[in-house]
Amino acid sequence: MSEFKGIAMKGVCFKCVGEVETLEMADPIIEQPGDAILKVTMAGLCGSDLHLFHGREVGVDQGTVMGHEVVGEIVAVGDEVRDFKVGDTAFAPFTTSCGNCFYCQSGLTARCSSGQLFGWREEGNGLHGCQSEFVRVPLADGTLMKKPVGLSDVSALLLADNFSTGFFCAEMADITPGKTCVVIGCGTVGLLSIIAARNLGAEKLYAIDPIAERRQAAEALGATPLTPEAAVGEIKNATNGLGADSVMELVGNPAAQRLAYEVMRPGGTMSVVGCHCTPDFAFSPIDAFDKNLTYRTGRCPARHYMDKLTDRVADGEFEIDGFVTHRFSMDDSVRAYDVFSNRKDGCVKAVFEF
Ligand SMILES: [Zn+2]
Ligand SMILES: [Zn+2]
User: Residue 301 C-alpha to ligand 1 middle, in angstroms?
Assistant: First the structure.
């Protein structure tokens, strides 16, 4: 095991609903022989951090380090880590994964039998997040990926979650050239799903968002922008009254789910990566039956998508570096969460830089 003798670090911690605080805390240590410790260079703020921040998901301990998107340099490895050494630059998806179990082998790394979610600790168990100077990464050989030379920290961070999730959403939507496709929700993942959908051949692509700047960003990527109010009428008009073939829903609230149902034609596919925290669907089982609906959803197996996409991003096939709009220091965490969660100052994607 390599030497790493940190003493105290700072981390952005969950305080209570609506509040985070930057605290001094003990450095992480190697706890298992498969662990690595990353010295963080960039950590993302993500829409899914806001489920916890706003209290839509509950149960996380006060003092848990927030965040699950990370790029950094390895400063310590456990005895069983084979593929990484101190000094390597690496990035990690939002869940750990062993690389060997049934789920990892079949590409569903987000459901690894021994996987854990970063930034989720209940009653002292679980993993701290990545918005801190150092982070412990269990199952390092299966979880981490070396950052190729020429790949920026921003691109690596987006591959660790948002771009992989956008690509996963587009792939689940059964996109082929000629089909009418719709993206609902033009935050970072929605905009990146537009890039993915176009890569998969989407030509007739609509993007729905209530916020004008986000519609403009979608239009710049080649989608036709629509407000939620106008969307059903416009899409029906454009499809001889049928509706869209493929609908990607990246919002995660009942109104967006209902809209996804309304804009879709019978026999279409709804692909959902918005995280729905309400107990019921916004359409009924008979609604689904009457539309011959295919509904696909789930947590993105980001580690699997990192394998698929990293070289393609490093080679310049996808231009995703411009998606980070705001950068903060950890000492500015309260303002960072305020700006990000309230979309102040045109904020779409924010990161902590170290
Ligand atoms: Zn995320
Ligand atoms: Zn596994």
Answer: 12
